[in-house]
Specification:
The structure is a homodimer. By secondary structure, chain A is α/β, with parallel strands linked by helices. Chain A folds into two domains: about 160 residues, NAD(P)-binding Rossmann-like Domain (Rossmann fold, 3-Layer(aba) Sandwich); about 120 residues, N-(1-d-carboxylethyl)-l-norvaline Dehydrogenase, domain 2. Chain A is built from 13 helices and nine strands. In chain A, the strands form two sheets. The first copy, chain A, has a six-stranded parallel β-sheet, with helices on both faces. Chain A has a three-stranded mixed β-sheet with strand order 7-8-9. In chain A, helix 1 runs parallel beside helix 6, helix 8 crosses helix 12 and helix 11 runs antiparallel to helix 12. The longest helix of chain A has 29 residues. The interface between A and B is large, with 73 and 73 residues. Chains A, B: Keywords: NAD, Oxidoreductase. Chains A, B: Pfam families: NAD_binding_11, NAD_binding_2. Chains A, B: GO terms for molecular function: oxidoreductase activity.
């Protein structure tokens, strides 16, 4: 089965290398060709546009940046829908709007094309090691057919319901992380102000009922002054905005997530730290302190 | 060494049983004597007041409810300071105000009495199993002397600095948990509204970067409709109020923790659910939904 892959960023690169390792024939496209060098060196072929790519493969996987990039990839003048045809399958792995996934599914359905929404968690490390969590929405039969391909990239691959449910599951995951990241940032801000040994604090909290992945992974990085992105704050902010738009549509107020979004807006939009990792949120509190 | 123990609630009972198991001679006092039956059956002696208790022991441990209970226990007409004398040690294990701990330390110091503040985390299970995390503030020499006693109750016993630093560490711990509890509640509220299988959601999120203790322990309880307190919401709200008073004193705004406090205020003060466990916060969202 020939696979087309659009998006050779940090996530896409790891995922493509795992597909190649599993002997899939992979053709790639990326807006900036230079960023595809690693995977081309590893054996991937190149297509000049999504439109060209869809003409030479059976399955297309997309993982790009923002919802507008997804829109362009599928609906642009050189987009997938200009050439995709009945019997093909499009797998959208960008974390994006459930409503956009529904629109893509509808367009595809009218043409006899199959789609899945399949956003991931697990970061660059999970992409590299093939241990991503993949949250899928779509039809059971299509899921079953695509599962071997998804399993080449992830170790925890599950169908959560019809079109858009993969995205909804990812949004719920991000809402949980909004809590761990704000809690971690404010815990450290408080601890620093109170004159505590922050290393000892992180260790003690992680041994009790405050333990969490963000604390274990980002706590030590923050104390070492390492704000390199495992996951860029600008992308997390995008996710929180989508989650809150969706919750508003469903008439479910999420005040703590709303507050987290406001804090990430300050970090990304006002302080210009969108390319920092999500752990950079703690910088907000240092600045707040010196106000 | 003779130990006096004030407070035979859920936490105190487990802690006292572990002291007795470690062959300490324990005398207890509790405002409601009936609640001391379990430990008296296990061999603890009874004193009629904190004042009486301090006359017959070397070390007094206190773990009561709210800061006003601590105040009464130490400074009341029948309080500890009415009879405590030089050479004794008072260990305050209630989660309480760092400023009150400082005041107790000052009063004690003037009388030649040693003090430690030593709040705990780990809940009723940790108290029962002797695996509490104990966060200590005070002098190194006093800590070293008391460590065997503390180690009979906890498996993770550390000194974090001078008087009040134990309480500050506990506050930082609660700030972290405010994040995991709000995140968990809003994740489930969103997931329910989006029609996701919540068991599958909890399982998937716990396998990735959203994993945390609250999710693992309270997620399944919430889905089973179990809101029994591991830790009562009214006590958690007390802790958040103290944390925010302290952060205000230090001029460190903690907006996400402030939001968490507001949500727990709605749950405890408006909905009257203070005796539910902290996981009852999710009920707020169900009600918000049906508004």
């Amino acid at each position: 089965m020939k696979i087309g892959f659009i998006g050779t960023g940090v996530m896409g690169t790891g995922m493509i290398l795992n597909l190649i390792k599993n002997n899939y024939d992979v053709t790639v496209y990326n807006r900036t060709k230079a960023h595809a060098a690693t995977v081309i060196d590893a054996g991937a072929k190149w297509a000049d546009s999504p439109r060209d790519l869809a003409q030479v493969v059976d399955v297309v996987i997309t993982i790009v940046g923002f919802p507008q990039d997804v829109e362009e990839t599928y609906y642009g003048d050189n987009g997938l829908f200009k050439s995709a045809k009945a019997g093909q399958t499009l797998i959208e792995m960008t974390t994006s709007k459930p409503s956009l996934e529904a629109k893509i599914a509808q367009t595809a359905d009218a043409k006899g094309i199959n789609t899945l929404d399949a956003p991931v968690s697990g970061g660059d490390v999970g992409a590299k090691n093939g241990t991503l969590t993949i949250m899928v929405g779509g039809e059971q039969a299509v899921f079953d057919q695509m599962k071997p391909i998804l399993s080449a990239m992830g170790s925890n691959v599950n169908l959560f319901g019809g079109h858009g449910k993969g995205q909804h599951t990812k949004m719920a995951n991000q809402i949980m992380i909004a809590g761990t990241m704000t809690g971690l940032s404010e815990m450290l801000a408080y601890g620093k102000a109170a004159g505590l040994d922050l290393s000892a604090l992180v260790k003690t909290v992680s041994q009790g009922s405050g333990d969490n992945w963000s604390l274990d992974n980002y706590g030590p990085r923050i104390l070492a002054g390492d704000f390199k992105p495992g996951f860029a704050a600008k992308h997390f902010l995008k996710d929180l905005r989508i989650a809150l738009q969706e919750s508003e549509k469903m008439a479910i107020p999420l005040p703590a997530t709303e507050k987290a979004k406001e804090l990430y807006e300050k970090m990304v939009d006002q302080m210009g730290l969108g390319n920092d990792g999500t752990q950079g949120l703690v910088k907000l509190y240092r600045d707040m302190k010196t106000d």
